[in-house]
C-alpha cells in the first residue's frame, strides 16, 4: 500500500477548503444572476424611493411598465416578487428523523475498516523507535504568503485511511470536520481501563481546560465517534495478530482466560474441583429507553405506547466475552416451564429449601420484573476465583432472572467439562433449579456443584450452611492466599491440645458432629410425626363441631326473624339469610367429608365424642403439639441467630461481612418476634399454663448453654457434645484446617501452571515474531506489542514466587513443566523442542548451570562451519538458523535467573 507523504496529506486537507470556497462562489454568482433578471425600467416611470417594481404596485396600477412585442415582462415581475409567489407554494412536512445516521456512519467506516487497520499498523510501525512522543502530526510550514490550489489525486483506500496513516482518527467516514490524534485516544483508553468511572465528557472538558478553550456540548459526541472508530481499528488489528498466532479459534479466549485455572500440566494431581467460579447480577448499570410520546386523541389517551426513538445501531461486541441474546433467551421462563413438564418431579423425601423466603431473587427468580422505562438494567457477571472474567450477560428489560445464570453455566460446562464449583448468593436454590431443567443431566454427569459464597453464606439458614457453605464443602476455600493457609495450619497444635482437654480421641468425630447437627436442625424444622393421624382426626372433629355450631346459630337467627312478603327489605334479608344458611350447610358437609375420609384411612371403628377418653387425650396432645411446634420454630430461629452471632464476633471477620451478617440478623429478628408471639399463645393454652417469654430475654441468649427454653422441648440440645462452646470452636478449627490443606495442594498446582505459562508464552511469542518478520513486518511488530502487553509483570510474579519459595514450609516447585495443551509449545519440523526443565533437575542451580552450558554450546556451534554443525542445526531446527535457537535458550536462561537471583 502506498504511504502518503506529508505534502500529500496537506493536499487532502486543502481539498476540503477548495471545495467549500467553490460552493460559496457559485452561490454568490447565482444570487447576482437573480438580481440582474429584473427589468431595466426607465427612471422617469419609477419612483426613486421604490428601489424596484413589486407585483402589488404593478397590479394596483401605481407604476407603468413598457412591454415589448415578445412579451414576458409582466410575468417575470410577478415571479420575481417573493411575497406574491409565496401564496402559491406548498409547504411539505419534513418527516425525516435521522434515526439511521449512526447506522450510516457505521457502514461508512465498515467499508474502510480493513484499510484503516492496515494504515494503523503502518503508523504504529513508523513510531517504533520514538514511541508515542513522535506521534504528533507534522507542524504546518511557516510561510509569509499562501495560495489556494486544487489537488486532483486518487484515494482508493478512502479518506479515513489517509488520516489514520498520519495518526489521526476522523469523526466521519467521508467529510470529517474534526480529527483526534491517536495518541490522545490511546491515553483515554488506558486511563479509562484503570479508572472506569472516568467518562468521555469530563475527559473532553479537561482537554478543553488544558488548551484554554470553552467546552462545547458537541465535542464529547465527536470524541465518542472517534473513540468508537479507534476501538474498531484496534480490535481489527488484534484479530489479525491473533490469527497469525493461531489464537483465533472458537472460544479460544474462554479456554485460556486464566493460566492458573486452564493451563493444565502433565502429571499434576487431580483436584476435587478443577475450577472455582462465582457469579452475580448487578442492577446499577441501567440505561433508559427513549420512546415517542404516547398516542393521544381528542377523547384522551388511546393506550398505545409510543415507538422507540433510539438510533439504529447494528454493531455487536466482538469476541466471546458477552453472551448473545439468543443464548440467554433459550432459558426464558416459558421454555423452562416446558422443560419442567417433561422432567419427573422430585420425590417427597426431598427437603424444602430453608432459605426460600430470605432472598428476593430466590423467591421470584423466574418472574422478576423491571420498570419498562429501562432498556438495560445491568449485567450478570461470572468470574473465576482469581478475578478474571469468564462471561458477561446483559440484563435486558428484566431483573435478575434465572435465565442469565443458566445460560452462563451451560456455556461453562460445554467449554470446561467436569468438576466445576460455582458460588452464587442463592446457590442452594440454584442447584435445585438446574436439576429441574434439561441442563440437569449434563450438570449431574459433569459433577457440577452449586454452593453459596462465603460472603453471603453466613446470612443463610444454618441448615443451608451445613451443606453449601465453603467451610464445610470439601475442595473449597475462602481465600487464595498461601501464607494465610499456612497461618491456619499453625493452629493445628492448638486443635490437638483442645481435643485432648475435651477427651476427643479422633478428628473424624467432627464430621459425625456436623451430620448430627444437621439432623437435629432438620427435625426442628419439621412438624412432629408421632400420632399425626390421630391429631389430624381430632382437629377434623373440632372443625366439624365448629361448623355445626355456626349452622345452628344461623338457623336460630332465621327463626327469630319476622318476614313480611310485601316488604322489599324483608325479601332482601330473606335472600341474605338463605345464602348464609346455604354456605354454613356447605361448610358442614365439607367438614363431615373430611372426618369420614380420616375414619376410613386410620381407621376409626367408633367415632370419637368429647366424652370419650381418646378424644380428651387427643385434645391434650394437640395442645402440647401446638406448643412444641411453636417452640421448635422459635428454637430453630434463635439457634441460627446464635450461630451467626458467633461468626460475626469471630476474629478475622471483616467489617463488610459483619455488616452483612448484621443486616441479615435484623431481618431474622422480625421472624423471631412472630414466632415468640405464637409460642406465648400456645404456652398460655397449656394446663397448667407455661410462663410467658419476652423478646428481651430471647435477645440475651449468646450461646446454646444459655438457652433455657431448650429444657422444655422434646430434645435437649445441651446434652449433645457438639453444642458446647469449646466443641464448636474445635469443630470450626478442624474444618478450616482441612480446607487450608486442600488450598495448599491447589496453590502448589496453580503456581506451577502460571510459571509454565509464562515460560511457554514468552518463548512462543518470540518465535512467532521472528517467523513473521520475514513475511509481514507490520504484524511482527504487533506481535511484539502483544508480547509486551501480555508479559509486563512476569518479572514481578517470578520475584514473588521466589520469595514464597524461600519459606521453608513451601511444598511446591517453581520449575516449569510440560503443558497438556500444545497451543503454546514451540514446534520445529513437527517435533516439540524439549525444554531444559524436562530433565527433572531437582537443584535450581544445577538447572541454571545446564541452561548456561547449553547456550554456550549453541553459541560456539553457530560460529563454526562444518558438517557436524550443519547436521546439528538440521536435527533440531530444520531450516531455522542457530540464532533463533540461541534466542529461545537465552529466554529460558533469563527466566531461571529470575528464579534464583535476589530481588
What topology emerges from the helices and strands here?
Blueprint: H1 6-36, H2 55-60, H3 73-80, H4 82-85, H5 101-111, H6 113-126, H7 159-165, E1 168-170, E2 179-181, H8 182-194, H9 200-211, H10 217-245, H11 252-255, H12 259-262, E3 275-282, E4 287-288, E5 296-297, E6 300-301, H13 325-329, H14 333-341, H15 360-363, E7 374-384, E8 389-396, H16 403-416, E9 420-423, H17 427-435, H18 439-445, E10 449-451, H19 454-457, H20 462-468, H21 482-489, H22 492-501, H23 508-525, H24 532-559, H25 568-601, H26 613-648, H27 655-685, H28 695-699, H29 725-773, H30 777-790, H31 794-805, E11 827-828, E12 831-832, H32 844-862, H33 867-876, H34 882-900
Parallel strand pairs: 3-9, 9-10
Antiparallel strand pairs: 1-2, 3-7, 4-7, 5-6, 7-8, 11-12
Describe what you observe in this structure.
The model is unreliable at 37-51, 344-350, 363-367, 702-713, 829-885 and 899-903 (pLDDT under 50). It is flat, with a radius of gyration of 42 Å. The longest helix has 49 residues, at 725-773. The strands form 4 sheets. Strands 3, 4, 7, 8, 9 and 10 form a 6-stranded mixed beta sheet that branches. The chain is built from 34 helices and 12 strands. It folds into 6 domains: 1-36 and 92-139 and 148-243, no CATH class; 273-289 and 314-345 and 352-473, no CATH class; 479-528 and 716-820, no CATH class; 532-608; 616-713; 826-903. Strand 5 (296-297) and strand 6 form a beta hairpin. With 903 residues, it is mainly alpha-helical.
Amino acid at each position: 500500500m502506498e504511504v502518503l507523504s506529508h505534502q500529500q496529506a496537506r493536499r487532502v486537507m486543502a481539498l476540503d477548503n477548495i471545495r467549500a470556497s467553490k460552493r460559496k462562489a457559485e452561490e454568490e454568482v447565482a444570487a447576482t444572476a437573480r438580481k440582474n433578471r429584473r427589468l431595466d425600467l426607465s427612471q422617469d416611470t419609477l419612483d426613486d424611493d421604490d428601489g424596484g417594481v413589486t407585483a402589488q404596485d404593478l397590479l394596483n396600477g401605481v407604476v407603468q411598465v413598457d412591454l415589448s412585442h415578445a412579451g414576458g415582462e409582466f410575468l417575470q415581475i410577478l415571479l420575481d416578487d417573493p411575497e406574491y409567489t409565496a401564496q402559491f407554494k406548498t409547504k411539505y412536512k419534513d418527516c425525516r428523523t435521522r434515526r439511521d445516521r449512526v447506522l450510516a456512519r457505521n457502514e461508512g467506516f465498515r467499508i474502510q475498516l480493513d484499510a484503516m487497520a492496515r494504515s494503523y499498523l503502518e503508523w504504529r510501525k513508523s513510531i517504533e523507535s520514538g514511541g508515542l512522543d513522535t506521534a504528533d502530526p507534522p507542524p504546518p510550514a511557516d510561510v509569509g504568503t499562501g495560495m489556494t490550489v486544487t489537488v486532483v489525486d486518487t484515494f482508493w483506500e478512502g479518506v479515513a485511511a489517509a488520516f489514520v496513516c498520519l495518526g489521526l482518527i476522523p469523526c466521519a467516514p467521508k467529510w470529517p470536520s474534526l480529527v483526534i490524534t491517536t495518541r490522545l485516544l490511546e491515553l483515554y483508553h488506558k486511563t479509562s481501563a484503570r479508572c472506569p468511572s472516568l467518562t468521555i465528557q469530563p475527559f473532553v472538558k479537561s482537554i478543553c481546560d488544558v488548551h484554554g478553550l470553552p467546552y462545547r456540548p458537541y465535542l464529547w459526541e465527536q470524541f465518542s465517534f472517534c473513540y468508537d472508530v479507534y476501538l474498531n481499528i484496534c480490535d481489527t488489528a488484534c484479530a489479525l495478530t491473533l490469527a497469525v498466532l493461531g489464537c483465533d479459534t472458537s472460544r479460544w479466549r474462554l479456554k485460556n482466560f486464566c493460566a492458573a485455572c486452564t493451563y493444565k500440566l502433565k502429571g499434576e494431581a487431580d483436584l476435587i474441583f478443577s475450577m472455582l467460579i462465582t457469579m452475580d447480577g448487578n442492577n446499577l448499570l441501567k440505561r433508559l429507553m427513549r420512546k415517542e410520546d404516547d398516542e393521544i386523541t381528542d377523547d384522551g389517551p388511546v393506550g398505545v405506547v409510543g415507538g422507540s426513538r433510539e438510533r439504529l445501531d447494528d454493531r455487536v461486541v466482538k469476541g466471546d466475552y458477552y453472551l448473545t441474546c439468543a443464548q440467554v433467551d433459550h432459558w426464558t421462563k416459558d421454555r423452562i416451564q416446558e422443560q419442567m413438564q417433561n422432567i419427573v418431579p422430585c420425590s417427597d423425601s426431598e427437603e424444602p429449601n430453608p432459605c426460600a423466603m430470605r432472598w428476593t431473587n430466590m423467591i421470584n427468580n423466574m418472574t422478576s420484573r423491571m420498570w419498562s422505562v429501562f432498556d438495560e438494567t445491568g449485567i450478570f457477571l461470572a468470574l473465576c476465583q482469581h478475578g478474571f472474567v469468564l462471561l458477561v450477560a446483559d440484563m435486558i428489560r428484566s431483573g435478575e432472572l434465572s435465565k442469565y445464570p443458566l445460560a452462563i453455566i451451560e456455556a461453562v460446562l460445554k467449554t470446561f467439562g467436569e468438576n466445576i464449583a460455582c458460588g452464587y448468593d442463592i446457590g442452594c436454590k440454584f442447584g435445585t433449579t438446574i436439576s429441574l431443567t434439561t441442563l440437569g443431566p449434563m450438570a449431574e454427569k459433569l459433577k457440577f456443584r452449586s454452593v453459596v459464597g462465603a460472603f453471603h453464606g453466613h446470612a443463610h439458614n444454618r441448615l443451608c450452611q451445613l451443606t453449601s457453605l465453603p467451610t464445610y464443602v470439601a475442595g473449597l476455600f475462602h481465600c487464595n492466599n498461601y501464607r494465610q493457609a499456612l497461618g491456619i495450619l499453625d493452629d493445628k497444635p492448638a486443635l490437638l491440645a483442645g481435643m485432648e482437654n475435651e477427651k476427643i480421641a479422633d478428628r473424624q468425630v467432627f464430621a459425625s458432629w456436623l451430620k448430627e447437627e444437621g439432623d437435629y436442625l432438620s427435625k426442628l424444622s419439621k412438624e412432629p410425626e408421632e400420632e399425626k393421624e390421630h391429631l389430624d382426626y381430632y382437629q377434623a372433629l373440632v372443625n366439624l363441631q365448629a361448623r355445626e355450631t355456626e349452622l345452628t346459630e344461623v338457623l336460630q337467627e332465621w327463626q327469630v326473624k319476622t318476614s313480611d312478603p310485601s316488604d322489599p327489605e324483608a325479601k332482601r334479608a330473606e335472600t341474605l339469610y338463605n345464602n348464609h344458611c346455604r354456605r354454613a350447610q356447605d361448610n358442614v358437609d365439607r367438614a363431615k367429608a373430611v372426618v369420614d375420609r380420616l375414619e376410613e384411612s386410620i381407621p376409626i371403628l367408633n367415632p370419637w365424642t368429647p366424652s370419650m377418653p381418646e378424644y380428651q387425650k387427643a385434645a391434650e396432645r394437640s395442645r402440647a403439639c401446638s406448643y412444641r411446634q411453636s417452640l421448635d420454630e422459635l428454637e430453630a430461629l434463635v439457634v441460627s441467630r446464635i450461630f451467626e452471632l458467633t461468626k460475626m464476633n469471630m476474629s478475622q471477620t471483616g467489617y463488610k461481612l459483619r455488616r452483612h451478617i448484621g443486616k441479615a440478623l435484623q431481618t431474622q429478628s422480625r421472624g423471631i418476634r412472630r414466632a415468640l408471639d405464637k409460642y406465648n399463645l400456645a404456652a398460655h393454652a397449656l394446663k397448667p399454663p407455661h410462663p410467658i417469654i419476652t423478646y428481651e430475654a430471647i435477645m440475651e441468649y449468646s450461646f446454646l448453654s444459655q438457652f433455657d427454653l431448650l429444657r422444655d422441648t422434646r430434645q435437649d440440645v445441651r446434652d449433645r457434645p457438639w453444642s458446647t462452646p469449646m466443641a464448636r470452636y474445635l469443630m470450626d478449627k478442624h474444618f478450616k484446617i482441612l480446607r487450608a490443606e486442600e488450598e495448599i495442594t491447589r496453590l502448589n498446582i496453580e503456581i506451577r501452571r502460571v510459571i509454565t505459562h509464562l515460560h511457554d508464552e514468552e518463548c512462543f511469542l518470540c518465535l512467532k515474531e521472528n517467523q513473521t518478520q520475514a513475511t509481514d513486518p507490520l504484524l511482527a511488530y504487533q506481535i511484539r506489542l502483544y508480547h509486551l502487553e501480555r508479559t509486563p509483570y512476569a518479572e514481578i510474579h517470578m520475584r514473588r514466587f521466589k520469595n514464597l519459595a524461600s519459606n521453608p514450609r513451601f511444598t511446591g516447585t517453581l520449575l516449569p513443566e510440560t503443558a497438556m495443551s500444545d497451543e503454546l509449545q514451540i514446534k520445529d519440523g513437527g517435533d516439540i523442542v524439549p525444554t531444559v526443565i524436562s530433565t527433572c533437575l531437582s537443584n535450581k542451580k544445577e538447572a541454571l548451570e545446564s541452561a548456561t552450558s547449553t547456550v554456550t554450546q549453541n553459541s560456539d556451534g553457530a560460529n563454526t562451519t562444518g558438517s557436524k554443525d550443519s547436521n546439528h542445526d538440521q536435527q533440531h531446527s530444520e531450516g531455522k538458523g542457530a540464532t533463533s535457537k540461541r534466542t529461545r535458550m537465552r529466554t529460558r536462561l533469563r527466566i531461571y535467573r529470575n528464579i534464583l537471583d535476589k530481588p
